[in-house]
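Deadline looming. Please check this record:
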Amino acid sequence: MKRYALTLDLKDDPELIGQYIEHHQNVWPEIVRSIQESGICHMQIYHVATRLFMIIEAEESFSFGEKADMDAGDPKVQEWEQLMDQYQQRLPFAKANEKWVLMNKIFEL
């Protein structure tokens, strides 16, 4: 099993942040299915202020590139991403078209 940590910011607007949290308490079933079909076994998103932190546990065969290709061909995932985009704020150092930024592990106990 592989584990990944990613981060992203939200727009600094309490109303938008509340709406984003509400959406994630009622994620569309098509989105859950697409996540599972990509090889992701567990996913958690944590929130503080405007910062989001995601932990993914995935099968050894999981690939972010393959997940992106799957998502690009799924109209419901594209609809969800467009909806979420109104709440999300790219990190200043993110690459073009990069939302969630992969983090590097620097410590483990």
The chain has four helices and five strands.
